[in-house]
Amino acid sequence: MVGAGLLTWLLVESVIDMADPANSYSGVSWFGLGPPLVIGIGISLAGVVLMIVMRFVSPVFWSERPTVADPELVHRKES
Fold first, then answer.
1. What percent of the chain clears pLDDT 90, i.e. is strictly above it?
2. What keywords tag this UniProt record (predicted)?
């Protein structure tokens, strides 16, 4: 829980810093935000869209298939 909290805090701090265009290398503003934040949001949205498309294109990949490990592999004795 502590790790998740720290990562969430770091994400929020990073978004706040990257939202200010003055903190970017070029100092320009894209849509009123810093370019690194716009690029990060764009890549994240593209990933979500691709994931949703692949969910419909290849549903077998996303289905959970219960399997059982081969007992020979699990209980193999080292010689």
1. 51
2. Membrane, Transmembrane, Transmembrane helix
What's the pLDDT score for residue 5? 97
**What CA–CA distance (Å, rounded) separates 46 from 67?**
32
Question: Tell me, what DSSP letter sits at residue 27?
Answer: -
Domain ranges of the chain: 2-62
Using a cut of 0.85, tell me whether the model's pTM lies above it. no
Angle at 50 between CA 46 and CA 53, to 5 degrees: 140
Helical segments of the chain, H only = 2-19, 35-57, 59-62, 71-74
Which 8-state DSSP code applies to residue 50?
H
CA distance 15 to 12: 5
27: Cα separation from own chain's centroid? 27
Q: How many residues does the chain have?
A: 79
